[in-house]
Amino acid sequence: ELPTIYVITPTYPRPEQIPELTRLAQTLMNVPNIYWLVTDDTDTPNQDLIDYLTFTNIPHTYLITPMPPEYSGHKVKPKGVANRNAGMEWLRQHASKGVVYFADDDNTYDIRLFQEMRYTEKVSMWPVGLVSKEGLSTPVVSEGKFQGWFDGWIGGRTFPVDMAGFAVSVQYLLGVPNAAMPYKPGHEEDGFLRSLHISPNDIEFKAEQCTKLYVWHTQTKKSRHQPNIIFKKKYDNTNI
Ligand code: UDP
Ligand code: MN
User: Fold this and answer.
1) How far apart are CA 54 and CA 60, in angstroms?
2) Any catalytic annotation for residue 89?
C-alpha cells in the first residue's frame, strides 16, 4: 500500500480560481493515493468548486479558511497561511501517517514529483523553477551532501526555499505539536521549517539529488474581464 500524500492547496475567490484548480485537479487525477485538502480563503462556500471537486473523484475535504481580518488589510498579505495552518490542524485531527505537501493552486506540477516525495521520512526537498531573479530555488548538493542554498533571495533565512520545494512526513509533523506557519510574508517557509526543529543535515534530497525540475512557480496573469457588462437587456433569454 502506497503512503498517502496529503496535498494542502490554499485558494481564494477570483475569476481564475476554477481554471487554476482545474489544471491542478487534472494533475492530481493522475496520481495514486492522494488526499486533497482544498482550503479556501473566504467566508462563503463556493458551490461550483464543491461540485467540481466531486466531479474529479479525488478523495478530498473542502475547508473554509479565511485570512484573519487583522492581516487582510495589509498591503503585503500573508497569502495562504491561514489556509495551510487550517489544513495542518485537520491533519492533526484526522491523519496519523503519510506525507504532507503544500501545493499552491497556480503552480505547475509534473506527476513524477509525487513519486519523489511519497517516501519522505522527515523532510524532503527538490528544485523549484521560475523562483526569484535566478529562476531557480534549490538546495546545493554535491556528492550527496548538503552544501548550501541557491535562491535569488536568501533574506537572512535559515531555509531559503519555496513553498513548492519540500514535503514533510505526517508522523514527524504530528510529533511537533507547535509546528505552524507564521503570518510573516516572505518568511512562511522558513518559519514553518524552523518550527519543525530540523537541521539541513536532516533533509532528504529528491529528484535525482536535486538535478531534475518537476515543479515550477508559475503565476497567472490577472483576468481583465468584467462580469457585470453582460447584464444587459439585449441578452435576456439567450445563453449569455
Ligand atoms: N492565496 C490565498 N489568499 C489570498 C492570496 C493568495 O489563499 O489572498 C493563495 C493562492 O491561491 C495560492 C497561495 O495562496 O495558492 C499563494 O498565493 P499567490 O499564488 O498569489 O502568491 P505568489 O505565487 O504570487 O507568491
Ligand atoms: Mn503563486
Assistant:
1) 9
2) no
C-alpha 240/C-alpha 232 separation (Å) is: 10
Q: How far apart are CA 94 and CA 96, in angstroms?
A: 7
Going from the C-alpha of 135 to that of each of 130, 131, 143, 208, 217, the distances in angstroms are 4, 5, 23, 19, 9
Amino acid at 61: T
Which ligand lies nearest to the CA atom of residue 82 in the structure? 1
The x, y and z cell numbers of residue 150, run together, are 541557491
- CA 159 to CA 188: how far, in whole Å? 10
Q: What is the pLDDT of residues 17-70, one digit of tens each?
A: 999 999 999 999 999 999 999 999 999 999 999 999 999 999 999 999 999 999
Rounded distance, CA 31 to CA 42, Å?
Answer: 28
Against a cut of 0.95, is the pTM above it?
A: yes
- Return the DSSP state at 101: E
Q: Which residues line ligand 1 (CB under 6 A)?
A: 10-12, 41, 77, 79-80, 83, 104-106, 219
Query: Are 139 and 198 contacting, i.e. CB atoms less than 8 angstroms apart?
Result: no
Position of cell 508559475? 218
